Structures are given as C-alpha cells and as structure tokens.
Amino acid sequence: MTHDLTLLGLESSCDDTAAAVVRRHADGRGEILASVVVDQTSLHRDFGGVVPEIAARAHTEKLDVAAKQALMQANLGLGDMDAIAVTAGPGLIGGALSGVMFAKGLAAGASLPLIGVNHLAGHALTPRLTEGLGYPYLMLLVSGGHCQFLRVDGPQEFHRLGGTIDDAPGEAFDKVARMLGLGQPGGPAVEAEARSGDPARFAFPRPLLDRPGCDMSFSGLKTAVLRERDRLVEASGGLHRADRADLCASFQAAIADVMAEKSRRALALYLQASPDEPAFAVAGGVAANQAIRAVLETVSTEAGARFTAPPLALCTDNAAMIAWAGIEGFAAGRQDDMTLAARPRWPLDTTAPAMLGSGRKGAKA
Ligand code: KG4
Ligand code: ZN
Questions:
Q1: 7-35 pLDDT, tens digit each
Q2: Most CB atoms within 10 A, among 25, 125, 151, 256?
Q3: What is the reported pTM?
Q4: Ligand 1 contact via 49 beta carbon (within 6 Å)
Q5: Interval 213-264: pLDDT, tens
C-alpha cells in the first residue's frame, strides 16, 4: 500500500440505515472519519419484530440523508471518495435492494467504482479496522440473526468452523424477554434481570455439548425456559420478581456455558493453523453481554490467544464495517459494475454446508 484509500460505505440490510466514511492510511491503519446510524426501532416497536416492507421504505427515505450527513461530518465530498461500498446481502432483500440501487446511482453519477460487500464480511473484518489484527484470526459472530465461528484467512477467505443449527443467541434472548414480559431488544433486559438472579437455580439444558464439533443449538433452551415459567406460574399463580431474575440468570448461564465450550473447541481447531499471533475476536449485539464476554475472554486467554471485541457501536450494525470491507476488497482489485445484485442469502464460506433456519432479521448464512 502506497497511498490512502477513502470509501463511502452504505448499510441497509437489516433495520438500521447507515452511512460512513472510512480511510485506510498508507501504513495500513484504518480511520473512521464519520459514521452515521439511523435506527428504525420506533417504526417496528408495535409489531414485535422487524417488518420488511416498513424497513425497506424507511431505508429508501433515509439513505441519502445518512450519506449526506456522513460526508458532511467527514468534511469531504463525493469527489474525495475512491469508491462506494454497499451491503449487497445477506439480509432482508427489500433493504439490501434499496442500498444497492442507491449506491449504483451515486457511483454512476460521480463516476466512482462500486463494490458490493457481504454484510457478514463487514462484521468479520471489523477487528482489522479497530485493532489491526493480522490474518488468520478466529471470529465469533453472535447477534440476533447470526451465530458462527469463522477462521478469517483473508478479506474474502472465510472458513466456517461451526454455528447454530437453529436460533441465533440474540433471538433466544429476545424470545425469553418476551415470554417474561421484559422489553425489546431482549438481550440487555435479560442481562439486567440476571444480575440479581441465581444462575444455579434452574438446570437448563446445554444443547449439543455431548456432540463433537462447534455447532450450537438454542431453540430447545428457549422452550425449557418457557416450560419452567409455566410451571412457576401454575404453582404460585404468577411470576415473582425473584423467579424472573433466577430464570434470566439460569438461561444466561446456559448460553454462556455452551458458548464457552464451543469457543474452546473452535480455538483448538484454529490453533492447528499455527497462527503467528493467535487472536480471538467476538462481534455482534450479543457480544455486548458482560457475562458472556467474560467467559469468552477467559477461554481465549487459557488457549493463549489474544481476546478482542470491537467497541459496541462497531459490534452492532453500522456502515464503517462495510466501508472497511470495501477498502480491503478494492485494495485487492475487486470491483463490481451495474449488474451488482442484492442477495438475501450469501454464505461467507461457500464450501461449508448450508445452515438451517432463516433467522429473525435475515439469513443465517
Ligand atoms: O448485531 P445486532 O445489533 O443486530 C443483528 O441481529 O444483526 O444484534 C442484536 C441482538 C438482539 O437480539 C439483542 O437482544 C442482542 O443482540 N443483544 C444482547 C445484548 N445486547 C444486545 N444479547 C445479550 N446480552 C446483551 N447485553
Ligand atoms: Zn449484522
């Protein structure tokens, strides 16, 4: 690398409309010059989940506003960009399509190269932007729609070591919150309740621990919580505050146990590649959970790998990660043209068997 690269990144595959300006300096260091996220939570609140049509329309209305704001914050114009990167999938097709069409218009109008980015690659490459991690590193992507272990070998080389075969953990947190009358998003609400609860009171299942490999399953766990809640309600005519806290703490402990053991196995597989500087990175909304983060850090340190988690704003959906993934692709000679299509499904590792389920907010690619 002999010169700077500055890209505008756009993200609209889920329920956040985001735009960012990111620069890679000649020495390889990444810098976020602006990052704007317009969240749609209030638009979907009454429906108990993301409504694809509402999301797509909101993206169409907000993409230009977000892009303009990002450029303004960076104090740059479109003419200062080297290219435009946009999420082309996986995710909600209407949203991804809004982003791709908008990016095509911008790129054509400003005569700039266009790069379609895989949303999951954006998450997976974030530790290079924030920490300058070298390849290969181990990544655990864990959010409301995704859950997978990836060995990241290069900007487009991802090797999936395992993942969920049904729900994503964030999805399980959200469902448990709903069944206990807590607000959405469920993760932070369940974590807050769990703080005053007894994690050992209920022995919830630790699915798939008895089987080899790094695959995980969380839907049975959620059903076990539901059964226990119904039993408590029947026994005492309602759910006491302490019972709710204990349910949350015991549920969170089960998730943490499963993720710790599966991370141990993923680390062992990853370390077989003898990386020079072993590193384990975790990203996605669930990585915000302090209890889960703590066990993952312990497991990583025990295995001799450096543990890292991007700052929360870069763990959850954003466009800085899309701009960065675009920069890595562009620097490696990648470029798309006006035939770029939005893809609802787009697995990072095309050699790994397809994951089951479609995910709450998008494909579990
Ligand atoms: O990465 P993200 O913002 O969006 C996608 O799903 O792509 O992740 C959101 C998910 C939600 O399911 C939310 O409940 C969960 O992450 N989450 C948490 C916590 N904060 C957010 N789960 C557990 N503990 C948390 N503190
Ligand atoms: Zn995401």
A1: 999 999 988 899 999 999 999 999 999 99
A2: 125
A3: 0.90
A4: no
A5: 999 999 899 999 999 999 999 999 989 999 999 999 999 999 999 999 999 9
Residues 149, 263, single domain; the answer is yes
CA dist., res. 282 & res. 191, Å (int):
18
Q: Does the beta carbon of 177 sit less than 6 angstroms from any atom of ligand 1?
A: no
Shared domain check, 291 and 200: yes
> What is residue 316's three-state secondary structure?
coil
Pairing of strands 5-11, 16-24: antiparallel
CATH value at residue 357: 3.30.420.40
Q: Which amino acid makes up residue 125? A: L
Of 142-151, 190-199, 279-288, highest mean pLDDT: 190-199
Ligand nearest to the CA of 120: 2
- Ligand 1 atom closest to Cα of 185? 14
Asked whether 285 lines ligand 1 (CB < 6 A), one says yes
Rg (CA), the chain: 21
- 113/181 same-domain check: no
The domain tally of the chain equals: 2
